[in-house]
Design goal:
Blueprint: H1 8-13, E1 25-27, E2 39-41, E3 52-56, H2 74-86, E4 91-95, H3 108-123, E5 132-136, H4 140-149, E6 153-156, H5 166-173, E7 176-180, H6 199-216, E8 224-227, H7 236-244, H8 246-250
Parallel strand pairs: 3-4, 4-5, 5-6, 6-7, 7-8
Antiparallel strand pairs: 1-2
Helix pairs in contact: 3-4, 4-5
């Protein structure tokens, strides 16, 4: 006579494996996005790598030489966005704060004044509905205002260490969160590059701690994307070691199954 007392987990274990391995699904767009949703499937062998473009609204941008500043006109912004769409770039990361070494930090109000009009502009033009907007900020108040204006992702280089309201805010917003690794802040990070156990183990351990803190605050694990923090509290050689060791990082206990943003 069959054992009818098997619990649910035992019943599941008796099922044959699926023909295609299951993968976590990390949304990169809002539920209200009128176009096809963009998702990450981090463990599927057939997963895609998605490119993220950068729009730096800073006068001392490392990548734009101050092109995209407060004087950036709607027509030039429109041309930039059209180029992204025509080249099928799915994600646009918008930042108003320089995080280069020794940069002087802006206030949250100053940062928001730089990025908010651009997000509003993008979301007011239906032809750019397919772009997933990432707001690059470590301020919880900036994250909230930008997500409420139409941003899809919060990209925080500090992993919640520079604003103790960040995790609670992201949990309330219910958006996807890129959790970056750093030590200190842009003014001090270059002095914090000692990893006695090795940079891979150090970064992995510290990221795992921040993941646990994020989840304790209510952020869903399937809403997390990890960033190893290339250039943040690492030497040049440590950056290269992290890039060479991405397979080891992806398989690390506590990090396994999560997608990564690297650049």
């Amino acid at each position: 006579m069959p054992n009818t007392l098997l619990n649910f987990s035992s019943q599941l274990s008796l099922l044959p494996p699926p023909p295609t391995p299951l993968s976590p699904l990390t949304p990169l767009t809002r539920p209200t996005t009128p176009t096809s949703p963009l998702n990450l499937t981090s463990t599927l062998p057939t997963r895609k790598t998605h490119l993220m473009a950068i729009l730096n609204l800073t006068p001392d941008s490392f990548s734009c030489d101050g092109l995209h500043t407060a004087s950036f006109t709607p027509s030039s912004l429109n041309q930039t966005l059209q180029n992204l769409v025509s080249n099928k770039i799915p994600i646009l990361d918008i930042g108003g704060q320089s995080t280069r070494p020794h940069a002087s930090p802006l206030t949250a109000e100053e940062e928001l004044a730089r990025v908010f009009p651009t997000i509003k502009y993008i979301r007011s033009h239906p032809e750019f509905n397919g772009l997933s907007i990432s707001i690059d900020t470590f301020y919880a108040s900036v994250a909230r205002a930008c997500v409420e204006a139409g941003a899809d992702i919060v990209n925080d280089i500090s992993g919640g260490t520079l604003d103790d309201q960040m995790f609670d805010t992201v949990a309330e917003l219910g958006c996807t969160y890129i959790l970056g690794h750093i030590r200190g802040d842009p003014g001090t990070m270059n002095k914090l590059t000692q990893y006695p156990e090795g940079v891979i183990e150090g970064v992995a351990t510290e990221l795992a701690e921040r993941i646990n803190a994020a989840m304790a605050a209510g952020i869903r694990r399937w809403r997390l994307v990890l960033d190893p923090g290339i250039g943040f509290a690492k030497t040049g050689e440590q950056n290269l070691e992290l890039l060479r060791g991405m397979a080891e990082l992806r398989a690390w206990d506590g990090l396994k199954g999560l997608p990564w943003c690297v650049g």
